[in-house]
Amino acid sequence: MFARTAWLVLRKDVAIEAKSWEVLTTTLFFAVSCVLIFAFAFVKEGRAVEDAAAGILWIAIAFSGTLALGRTFERERYGETLRALLLAPAPRAALYVGKLLGMLALLGLAELLLVPMVALMFQAPLFNRPLLLLALLAGGTIGFCAVGTLFAAMLVRARSRDVLLPILLYPIVIPVIIAGVRGTAALLGATPDEPTAIMWIGILAAFDVVFVTLSLWTFEPLMTE
Q1: What is the tens place of the pLDDT at every residue in 169-201?
Q2: Which of 66, 151, 202, 204 is the most exposed place for a label (fewest CB within 10 A)?
Q3: For residues 140 and 180, is the Cβ–Cβ distance under 8 A?
Q4: Given this model, what pLDDT does residue 140 score?
Q5: CA–CA separation, 196 vs 219, rounded Å?
Q6: What is the 3-state secondary structure (H, E, C) of the chain?
Q7: What does the pLDDT read at residue 43?
Q8: What distances in angstroms separate CA 157 from CA 71, 83, 162, one per listed residue?
Q9: Is the distance from CB of 156 to CB of 197 less than 8 angstroms?
Q10: 206 with 140: CB under 8 angstroms?
């Protein structure tokens, strides 16, 4: 029942997005705009500022992810969709997992565009250690989306949700973003520091376990309130 409910919520979101492409195109446009602005600011005479690529990549992921969270849950307000989901005879945690999987898929698609773009514009060797980079992106994205999905669902009925979401989200996910930046920077040095990158991957995995566990535990009481 749990897995089926999560799958149905994910399929609903994918089917809606496949018809409108609203959230995906908005997220991708915003992510590309962030990278372009930073490129104009930090690339001088064809040479990028040293060690800028890692921070810019994760800033673009965080900003575009925040936009996607707000736009995705905006749909649930129409026709009281979220209330209907909560009234359904299904595990509440499964609803959270379904929404989380949808956010992970959306940010994953954005990262498929962001990583090559940052590598090209900032002359960053992001593809020299692809498996380690993939692990860093996966760990950081899961941690960010785990907390973001919980807060976005909690604030869906709030009038000032667009302002409250980043205020609540960023103080908690800053450790995840820092770990992602430091781990990525370790891979982009003149001599890639794989042990340091692996250490940051482990820290991200620990954050993911804590954030996902706490989100599953608190989703039902928060949404009930």
Answers
A1: 999 999 999 999 999 999 988 788 899 999 999
A2: 202
A3: yes
A4: 95
A5: 34
A6: CHHHHHHHHHHHHHHHHHHHCHHHHHHHHHHHHHHHHHHHHHEECCEECCCCHHHHHHHHHHHHHHHHHHHHHHHHHHHHHHHHHHHCCCCHHHHHHHHHHHHHHHHHHHHHHHHHHHHHHCCCCCCCCHHHHHHHHHHHHHHHHHHHHHHHHHCCCCCCHHHHHHHHHHHHHHHHHHHHHHHHHHHHCCCCCHHHHHHHHHHHHHHHHHHHHHHHHHHHHHHHC
A7: 79
A8: 13, 10, 11
A9: no
A10: no
At what angle are helices 53-74 and 161-188 packed, to 10 degrees? Answer: 150
Give the integer Cα–Cα distance in Å for 131 and 139: 12
Q: What is the pLDDT of residue 92?
A: 79
Give CA–CA dist 32/147, Å, rounded: 24
> For tokens 């993911």, what's the residue?
208
Cα separation, 166 vs 5, whole angstroms: 28
Do 155 and 69 touch, CB atoms closer than 8 A?
no
The predicted pLDDT at position 80 comes to 66
Low-confidence residues in the chain, pLDDT < 50: none
Which residue type does 214 have?
L
Q: What letter represents residue 127's amino acid?
A: F
CB 59 within 8 A of CB 33: no
Residues constituting the chain: 225
pLDDT at site 221: 79
Token pair of 189, please? 């040095």
